[in-house]
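Why does residue order matter? Because the sequence determines the fold. Keep that principle in mind as you read this record.
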Amino acid sequence: LDLSGQRREIAVLFTDINGFTALAETLDPAQLKELLNEYLGGMTDIVFEHDGTVAKIIGDALHVLFGAPGDQPDYATRAVACAVALDAFAEACRKRWRDKAVEVGATRIGVHAGPAIVGNFGGSRFFDYTAYGDTINTAARLETANKQLKTRICVSQAAAERADNFQGRPI
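Structure:
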């Protein structure tokens, strides 16, 4: 392991739970721990089932890479399939928590594909594997765009074109 980077074609996926910060402020710490452990455990299991790389978990949000660090010629197909599976899990999780009288917001997911610089970045005491570039920023913006579009998954045209048998509607 060393501090280095390389440019490569990847797919990036971001998730975030709508209204989670406000919800977390109202929950008992034990409830919050149970909810986050169930949710993040299930979400990361799905990412790993699709051979994704969890670049970061920030609160309730996931930042996931496909096509890095290892080569995956079908990186976009994996990212889109993963997004659909994550959505199904998140909706089932919302229902389980609604049955416990806890209203969890919908999980928003953004997917984009394109060039990025990936690698280990940091300093002498800390570094992590991550990605930089417009591709990452666009995926994050697509996740947020779900709010205005009233959707849960937003896949860019670039990712849709690179994914096998993509099924979706243009917006």
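Strands lie at 4-17, 53-58, 61-66, 107-122, 127-132, 153-155.
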